[in-house]
Design brief:
The protein is of the alpha/beta class. It has twelve helices and twelve strands. The two termini are 28 Å apart.
Length: 319
């Protein structure tokens, strides 16, 4: 029987690349070889599967595909894919939920604590030789224990963030989403609030929603205007959920105390007005960036692809 063809459109762990090469005709997209879109268009003409992450895939890239059955993304989010187009073509999409939940929740808490206690700012301050006497109010941070944590998006990651706040920091948990989730919320005595009320009453606000038409620019100037002056804002979802210019102005004008950001409207990001501010902690989209978690994501994406292409069903199909 002829082997099916698989297109690898970003790097994956060498172990799984080797397995794919043994099981399928493997075509690798290489940025060094020129136009990525043209490479994909040529590669997918007779491909049955694709695996990778970090590239937009829609009609422009995939219209030449004649036999494509599945795209297996090495991520839990799938906003890089034109879902409507894939559905119209009958192309399945699989992703890697659950395996990165706890790691991403850890990242959210790293940002929350660093921003609250001004860790990055005071690290620079100390190294610069400014610590010449006992710290004063100019260096004070915000208390976390016993405060209100407002979570926007109580999915798997949002619930893991809430769990840490409730059991570890005795926090009052509030949440907002498109629907109430009492089966999850009851674990933390979490209260469902309208978005405006959550924003105006929470000491800490963490955004953990998927990016979709309902969440695009969900947090903009009107929302920052509602937040308390001592509020700490954290985004570990997607950059497009937040109006960055509005966030910048809120931080610059001290409308909120601080922010911790792992995602941005443009990625990778080498220049931003946000970088000029002391009251923001930034990381380069590292939510799942531990060796164990990335290995687990690679393994699950590989398994999803192989299962679907061998007549079974992928473990985690988006559709």
């Amino acid at each position: 029987m002829d082997k099916k063809t698989v297109v690898l459109f970003s790097g994956i762990r060498a172990e799984y690349e080797q397995k794919l090469a043994e099981q399928f005709n493997l075509i690798k997209i290489n940025p060094k070889l020129g136009n990525i879109t043209e490479q994909i268009q040529n590669a997918v003409k007779h491909a049955h599967g694709m695996i990778g992450a970090g590239r937009y895939l829609g009609e422009e890239q995939l219209h030449t595909a004649e036999n494509l059955e599945i795209i297996s993304t090495v991520s839990v989010g799938y906003d890089n894919y034109d879902v409507d187009y894939l559905k119209s073509r009958g192309i399945h999409l699989a992703h890697t939920p659950h395996v990165l939940t706890e790691t991403t929740a850890d990242t959210a808490w790293s940002l929350l604590m660093s921003a609250s206690r001004r860790v990055v700012e005071l690290d620079k301050w100390t190294r610069a030789g400014e610590w010449k006497k006992t710290v004063a109010a100019e260096q004070f941070g915000m208390d976390i224990f016993g405060k209100r944590l407002g979570i926007i998006g109580l999915g798997n990651i949002g619930a893991a963030i809430a769990r840490r706040g409730f059991y570890g920091f005795n926090m009052d948990i509030a949440y907002y989403g498109r629907k109430e989730k009492p089966e999850i919320a009851n674990q933390f005595n979490a209260q469902y609030l309208p978005l405006d009320e959550l924003l105006s009453t929470s000491d800490f606000i963490v955004v953990a929603v998927d990016l979709n038409p309902h969440t695009q620019n969900l947090i903009s100037k009107a929302q920052f205007d509602l937040m308390q002056k001592h509020a700490v804002f954290v985004n570990i979802s997607r950059g497009a959920v937040v109006d960055e210019q509005a966030l910048y102005q809120a931080l610059l004008n001290k409308q909120i105390f601080a922010a911790g950001l792992d995602v941005f409207q443009k990625e990778p990001l080498t220049e931003s007005a946000l970088f000029e501010l002391d009251n923001v902690v930034v990381t380069p989209h590292i939510g799942s960036a531990t060796q164990a978690t990335r290995d687990a994501m690679n393994k699950l994406a590989y398994e999803n692809l192989v299962l679907q292409l061998t007549g079974k069903q992928a473990k985690y199909l988006v559709f």
